[in-house]
Write a structure and sequence with these properties.
Length: about 100
Amino acid sequence: MTVDGIEDYMLQCTSKQLFGVECLGCGTQRATVLFFKGEFAAAFHMYPAIYTIIFLLLFLVFNLFVKFKHDFKIKVGLLLLNVAVIVISYFIKMSPYL
């Protein structure tokens, strides 16, 4: 299966289907596909938090094998950064509708 074929298996947003309003995670799947296709700018425009999420996941995997002194503080900081980017980008995306 290529990256192009995965688009057939994407889940639809329940919030958007039921209420007509995008949720905080709308665009994550499409941005991930764009990232793996090598369309990095398009992935960022689709879902700005894609890069902070990838960085957090890479750090978590790295931390499974390498432990160090302030790893918990770094994890919390990266998590808060992700939440901030997700919420801010959501409000920017939804601002024309407010």
